[in-house]
């Protein structure tokens, strides 16, 4: 899949960038705290997650104001401004109802928008969300994290990476730390995280009339699972899927476990990869590449012809956005423990 980038302007003049991939019924995705449409597409794990969601539909994402490739804005972060931005992107979509997915802070924005626009949303998925930001962590912990971001964005993002993606490998976690720093300034990052802690949609969720699925990892280190239980209990008829894992980011850890129930709920067919980065056979080939084997040696080891081995390596290079066998070997070494 290749993503297509476009621009849209809110009613108050904020310019947002959005990206779409795939074809079919629209699935609009509201990201969490920070995003970067271009850099996220270059991270193999995150790209695999989006491709897993987009198979058989059109996935639309956007960078909120001040993040990624969207323009800075003078607006102070608020739920009202978040809803205004979602309004602008939703206005681009066909008049038919679309599916809406909100992740982390985006879950609260998506739920509030769905409550206000019951005729526009066909199905609603909330991953890693909460009802009250004040319940995410004690006040002193929240103040400490915000202070780290304000005084040392580099250190602050490393701490947050440990909170958001403890199940990711060392290479992926280091990549995410750099990704955070490239996604916004320290001031914007702090202001948006402060908004996450301030948001409370307890007076809104009982107005959601859209069929809703809440998905959450049991040991999520950024958002307690109790908040997911409260979120599902507050939305009439909502279902709740509790998954193993500690990572808050949906594309860290077992991505397939996140993608599969979402696709089932949205009525989409199961994918062959389910959002996995590489197939089991491709992982085997990557392991042999890391041993320094040639295409002929890989073919002999696996009992396939040399042309098939070459084709597997070409597809691995594409999936990893890599340019050499050495990069495949580096990726495999960094993820060996996760791959089992």
Distance between the termini: 28 Å
Quickly give the structural class. alpha/beta
Helix content: 40-55%
Which CATH architecture of the largest domain? Answer: 3-Layer(aba) Sandwich
Q: What is the CATH fold-level name of the largest domain?
A: Rossmann fold
Q: Which value, in Å, is the CA radius of gyration?
A: 20 Å
Overall geometry: globular
Approximately what portion of the residues adopt beta-strand conformation? 5-15%
Residue ranges: pLDDT <50 for 5 or more in a row? Answer: none
Question: What is the spatial order of strands in the main beta sheet?
Answer: 1-2-4-3-5-6-7-8
Number of helices: 14
Mean pLDDT: 92
* CATH homologous superfamily classification of the largest domain: Alpha/Beta hydrolase fold, catalytic domain
Largest sheet at a glance?
8 strands, mixed
Number of separate strands: 8
Top CATH class of the largest domain: Alpha Beta
Supply the number of structural domains.
2
Protein name: Alpha/beta fold hydrolase
Keywords: Hydrolase
GO molecular function: hydrolase activity
Organism: Microbacterium alkaliflavum
Q: Features of this protein?
A:
340 residues; alpha/beta; Rossmann fold; Arc Repressor Mutant, subunit A; 8-stranded mixed beta sheet; 14 helices
Describe the structure.
This is Alpha/beta fold hydrolase. The chain is α/β, with parallel strands linked by helices. It folds into two domains: 4-266, Alpha/Beta hydrolase fold, catalytic domain (Rossmann fold); 280-339, Orthogonal Bundle (Arc Repressor Mutant, subunit A). Helices cover 48% and strands 14% of the residues. The protein has an eight-stranded mixed sheet with strand order 1-2-4-3-5-6-7-8, sandwiched between helices. Helix 9 links the parallel strand 7 and strand 8 (239-243). The chain starts with a strand and ends with a helix.
